[in-house]
TrEMBL record, chain A:
Membrane topology per record: Multi-pass membrane protein
Cellular component GO terms held in the UniProt record: plasma membrane
General function of this protein: Cytochrome bo(3) ubiquinol terminal oxidase is the component of the aerobic respiratory chain of E.coli that predominates when cells are grown at high aeration. Has proton pump activity across the membrane in addition to electron transfer, pumping 2 protons/electron.
Species the sequence originates in: Roseivivax halodurans JCM 10272
Annotated protein name in UniProt: Cytochrome bo(3) ubiquinol oxidase subunit 3
Cited PANTHER family: CYTOCHROME BO(3) UBIQUINOL OXIDASE SUBUNIT 3, CYTOCHROME C OXIDASE SUBUNIT III
Record-annotated membrane-spanning stretches: 30-53, 73-92, 104-123, 143-166, 187-207
Major place of residence: membrane
From TrEMBL, chain C:
One GO CC annotation: plasma membrane
Keyword Transmembrane annotated: yes
Domain of life per record: Bacteria
GO molecular function list: cytochrome bo3 ubiquinol oxidase activity; cytochrome-c oxidase activity; heme binding; metal ion binding
Domain (Cytochrome oxidase subunit I profile): residue spans on this chain: 50-570
Keyword Plastid: no
Keywords, ordered alphabetically: Copper, Electron transport, Heme, Iron, Membrane, Metal-binding, Respiratory chain, Transmembrane, Transmembrane helix, Transport
TM ranges: 33-58, 70-87, 120-138, 159-180, 200-226, 238-266, 286-309, 321-345, 357-380, 392-414, 434-451, 463-485, 505-529, 605-638
Biological processes per GO annotation: aerobic respiration; electron transport coupled proton transport; respiratory electron transport chain
Record-stated family: Belongs to the heme-copper respiratory oxidase family.
Organism, as annotated: Roseivivax halodurans JCM 10272
Protein name, UniProt field: Cytochrome O ubiquinol oxidase
Pfam families, sorted: COX1
């Protein structure tokens, strides 16, 4: 199990951070997480489909054009992509340089920009509430809030996870266990980015167009 | 002799690191370009209105592929067949479910004038 | 609304109704059931205290991460809920028999009964049963020590138990919903039913749904990654194949249900408009989502039973399974096609003919792989040396009845006919006809086969046979008449009827239901008799039926580490091959220390916290909701800082245990198949099977 030949192969999705010991265990864990993400992808896909069936159900209330602030969406997109990229950088410095502070620095950047994303999203929601575009107003708004909110909740959960990861890195150092967790976290983070691509293209941009 | 070997290993590691960082940067650049094109297609008038939606779909799919290949490291190598198969199977089922839903409920909306 | 209790009031406590409400049979049944839950729970608690078994229960079972114990706990959970489900079924039959212009129960109570009966039987009987089997068998059959994620496995059990607990609580506090097991809005929306019923349903389903999804994830990763060396995909036992397909279905089919349940919860609790009939809500979306889960669910339930029947035919016909490859392909195609047929549950919703026809054809196609399976089993039995023991009796019943059920399904697949019999008792007959012989008979047959493996003694054969025949006859008398009742136009779920011509059928089904009640007692009696005679029935050597797969190459019950040494697999039916070659039980050259995960209370914490969550949302006790969310999130946060530790079983102990077993085998006399049901069978088979190579 611990021979170096296997540790250099990419046995699982996401970045392989080079395990010193039990690469097989990491492979199983990451594959399990990958399966979870696939299930989550189906969840998102279905909420997307529901949104598609309800996009015209505005019931006389605000429509897509009234609730979309494209500047804010563009900024959120940039922040989320930036966060995703910073996370890759954190993983890479973990893989090639065993310097904890460098990894933590990149993690902090990733977390800050994701926090910025959430703030902007909450700000958008706040504006929508002020304009009466609450989810109770129409089927369309229910679907919009549910879809965007589901993604936002995932991001918030990810932030919590990142906080836990920071603590764990400080406590355990860059062990195999931590590396496996960082790999999974990375998959999760890029996955949320991928879902966001769907949201900004199919919900906001297509809604305004 | 030993020091030379150490140094060689170090450079090899650095080259690998360089390759990987370059790989990620390409991913970032591609994502940014595709995103900017998506926003441009809506926020400017370069594209005829009828082409906007297809363009958005193609750009989004392109970006999703970039993310899957570069950020999620899914490729066609043998070790990752199971992961790739899982992904393809998910896409198949999602296709059935999502398009099925839009087909079925869309048809119903049309026949029952729902949502207006 | 007051602080600690939300919208809960004293009058919601059902046991009190017996004294505060006017006496009627309806009240007696409703309040009596609540009393039974309360008294049952108290009796178990008192029994545990008197016997001083609380510590034992906690250490040996509730906190165990051993997949075998978790599997057994799933089965126990399934049986407790099954007893309730059967009792409800009998109450419903009693009501319908008296329902000519009336009936013994009130209409609302009747509606509550068919809703709880359906919900419980699908989600908290059938699902725990198949999950229990998969838990117990997958690692043993693939030659692994445990699941890929043992702690997650325990959490899944906790979440499933949460759903069951919420259903039980609804019997005592408040009431369950009355919209059928499918709970279609807007009938279950807050406008028509503001009460706690639909909320109980939503949270029981959503929370246990997470559990099922994680089970599926766990099983599929286990099968993908943890197989013993040499066990390629095409060497896996058929049960493992069906388990793999079911697991993948669980991973992908549960999300639509979860989404539907959460959207329904948002509608009800926060006033969203997904499925309401105003402000752009679209209730058709619910039917669509529900059945996108609901149809794969049918195959989730029945595929493992197919797996059991496959193992059963080849074991009890002492033949290699005929057409392994076609069976595997059939299983895989069933799991994909099962995602393409969901609309046949609502042909009458008003879709255009094109859509109805497309889904009708897809439904027809799914009969092909299922037919392949039936032929595979028949060909396996052909010229086999069949032993007509209890599992084979169930198999025979399954064969005859399941084909009828399947054919009635083909009738229903035709949209034009479906329009005629839609929502009649014909449907009730059809799905009971598929699920009872298909799933339940498979489960009972499986219990007879693997009970000796799990507990070290066989189930009493005569008692088992009588029970099996009671099930087959009871089922036939209860549900086959409903086909005719349905064709005569009796709608399902209606509390009464006016046509006296239906009465004979109703008496017949009531009689059948009584037989089913006897069959349930028969199961309990079988267990009781077997426990009393456990010394006579003991099979400690572990292979009572001349089995073919790896789980029989272990003592009964297997040690916590399953295998002293992980086996190397060279062929399908690995254990059968070894027996034919005359070297089934060998001592490995050396033993190694075995590491097993340590017990954890994770599952119980999740169980308590999520039950509190579900109860809190249902009754608007927001403090409880917040508290339970904090517990769940906090638990994950805190445990991530604790390093996993393991229990190490020293090599010497593994050696001692293994040697004792090998020695017992060398001293024992093997029994031939003619004597496998008498007391000479100690679990060492004098094999007479032939393995074609």
């Amino acid at each position: 199990m611990s021979d170096t030949a296997t540790t250099n192969e990419n046995l699982h999705p996401g970045m392989n951070l080079g395990y010193s010991g039990d690469a097989e265990h990491a492979e199983v864990t990451v594959f399990g997480f990958w399966t979870f993400l696939m299930s989550d992808l189906v969840t998102f896909g279905i909420v997307f489909a529901i949104f598609a069936t309800m996009k015209d159900a505005t019931a006389g209330g605000p429509g897509p054009a009234e609730v979309t602030n494209l500047t804010s969406i563009a900024m959120q997109t940039a922040l989320l992509l930036g966060s995703s990229f910073a996370f890759s950088w954190a993983s890479l410095s973990m893989k090639y340089h065993d310097i904890i502070w460098r990894t933590l620095g990149w993690l902090a950047i990733a977390a800050t920009s994701a926090l910025g994303f959430l703030m902007l999203e909450l700000y958008d929601f706040y504006h929508m509430i002020k304009e009466g575009a609450v989810p109770q107003r129409s089927g369309f708004l229910s679907a919009l809030w549910a879809l965007v909110g589901l993604h936002g909740l995932h991001v918030a959960g990810g932030l919590l996870w990142m906080a836990a990861m920071t603590g764990q890195i400080l406590k355990f150092g860059l062990t195999d266990q931590i590396k496996s967790r960082i790999t999974r976290m990375g998959l999760y983070w890029h996955f949320l980015d991928l879902v966001w691509v769907g949201i900004f293209s199919m919900v906001y941009l297509a809604g305004v167009a | 002799m030993r020091r030379v070997l150490d140094k060689l290993e170090l450079t090899a590691r650095n080259r690998e690191e360089y390759e990987e960082r370059r790989f990620y940067t390409i991913g970032l650049v591609l994502s940014v370009v595709l995103t900017v094109m998506s926003f441009m297609s809506v926020m400017t008038d370069y594209l005829p209105v009828t082409w906007v939606f297809p363009a958005l779909v193609i750009l989004a799919l392109g970006q999703i592929l970039v993310h899957i290949r570069i950020f999620l490291h899914i490729d066609l190598s043998r070790q990752k067949r199971e992961d790739l198969l899982m992904l393809l199977f998910t896409i198949l089922l999602l296709g059935i479910m999502a398009f099925g839903t839009i087909w079925v409920v869309g048809d119903m909306n049309m026949r029952m004038m729902q949502g207006h | 609304m007051n602080f600690p209790f939300g919208r809960l009031e004293w009058s919601d406590l059902k046991p009190v109704h017996l004294f505060t409400h006017e006496f009627s049979i309806d009240n007696l049944v409703g309040s009596g059931a609540a009393w039974m839950v309360v008294i049952g729970a108290l009796a178990v608690a008192v029994l545990l205290t008197v016997m001083g078994r609380w510590g034992w229960l906690w250490r040996e079972w509730l906190t165990s991460v051993d997949h075998k114990k978790i599997g057994i706990m799933y089965m126990v959970l399934g049986f407790v809920m099954f007893a309730r489900g059967v009792a409800e079924g009998m109450a419903m039959r009693a009501h319908q028999t008296t329902a000519l212009n009336g009936g013994v129960l009130s209409e609302e109570h009747w509606a509550e009964l068919f809703s709880t009966h359906g919900t419980i039987m699908i989600f908290f009987v059938a699902m725990p049963f198949i999950t229990g089997f998969m838990n117990y068998l997958i690692p043993l059959q693939i030659g692994a020590r445990d699941m890929a994620f043992p702690v997650l496995n325990q959490i899944s059990l906790g979440l499933t138990a949460t759903g069951a607990a919420l259903c039980m609580i609804s019997l005592v506090v408040g009431k369950f919903q009355i919209g059928g097991w499918t709970a279609y809005p807007p009938f279950t929306g807050s406008t028509f039913d503001p009460g706690p019923g639909p909320d109980y349903w939503i949270w029981a389903i959503a929370l246990s749904g997470f559990g099922s999804m994680f089970s599926g994830l766990n099983f599929s990763v286990t099968i993908y990654k943890m197989r013993a060396p040499g066990m390629t995909y095409m060497r896996m036992p058929v049960f493992v194949w069906t388990a793999l397909c079911t697991s993948i279905l669980l991973v992908f089919a549960l999300p639509p249900l979860t989404v539907a349940a959460f959207m329904q919860a948002l509608d009800r609790t926060l006033g969203f408009h997904f499925f309401t009939n105003d402000l752009g809500g679209n209730m058709m979306n619910y039917a669509n989502l529900f059945w996108m889960f609901g149809h794969p669910e049918v195959y989730i339930l029945v595929l493992p039973a197919y797996g059991i029947f496959s193992e059963l035919t080849s074991t009890f016909a002492a033949k290699r399974l005929y057409g392994y490859t076609s069976l595997v392909l059939a299983t895989m195609s069933i799991s994909v096609i099962s995602f393409c047929v969901w609309l046949h549950h609502f042909f009458t919703m008003g879709n255009s003919a094109t859509i109805n026809v497309a889904f009708g054809i897809a439904t027809g196609i799914i009969a092909i792989p299922t037919g392949v399976k039936v032929y595979v089993w028949m060909a396996t039995l052909w010229r086999g040396r069949i032993r007509m023991t209890t599992p084979m009796i169930y198999m025979t019943g399954f064969f005859m009845l399941f084909v009828i059920g399947g054919l009635s399904g083909m009738i229903l697949a035709n949209p034009a006919i479906n329009w005629q019999v839609h929502n009649t008792q014909f449907i009730v007959a059809h799905f009971h006809n598929v699920l009872l012989p298909g799933l339940l008979f498979g489960v009972f047959a499986g219990i007879h086969i693997w009970f000796p493996k799990a507990f070290g003694f066989r189930l009493h054969e005569t008692a088992g046979q009588v029970t099996a025949i009671l099930w087959i006859v009871g089922f036939s008398l209860t549900f086959l008449p409903l086909y005719f009742v349905g064709l005569m136009g009796y709608p399902r779920r209606s509390s009464g009827f006016e046509d006296p011509a239906l009465l004979p059928y109703m008496y017949l089904t009531l009689f059948g239901a009584l037989l089913i009640g006897c069959a349930l007692l028969g199961l309990i009696a079988t267990l009781w008799i077997s426990i009393r005679q456990r010394d006579k029935l003991a099979v400690p050597l572990g292979d009572p039926w001349d089995g073919r797969t790896l789980e029989w190459a272990t003592p009964a019950p297997p040690p916590p580490w399953n295998f002293a040494v992980i086996p190397h697999i060279a062929e399908r039916d690995a254990f059968a091959r070894e027996k034919v070659d005359g070297k089934p039980f060998v001592q490995p050259p050396d033993y190694k220390d075995i590491h097993l995960p340590r017990n954890t209370s994770a599952g119980m914490i999740m169980f308590i916290a999520t039950t509190a969550f579900g109860f809190g949302v249902t009754w608007w006790m927001w403090w409880l909701v917040i508290l339970s969310v904090l517990v769940v999130v906090g638990w994950f946060f805190v445990t991530s800082f604790i390093e996993h530790d393991e229990v190490t079983i020293p090599a010497a102990e593994v050696r001692r245990h293994h040697n004792a077993w090998i020695e017992a085998i060398s001293l024992a006399t093997p029994v031939t198949r003619d004597h496998e049901t008498d007391s000479r069978n100690r679990g060492l088979a004098d094999t007479d099977m032939v393995v074609a190579s």
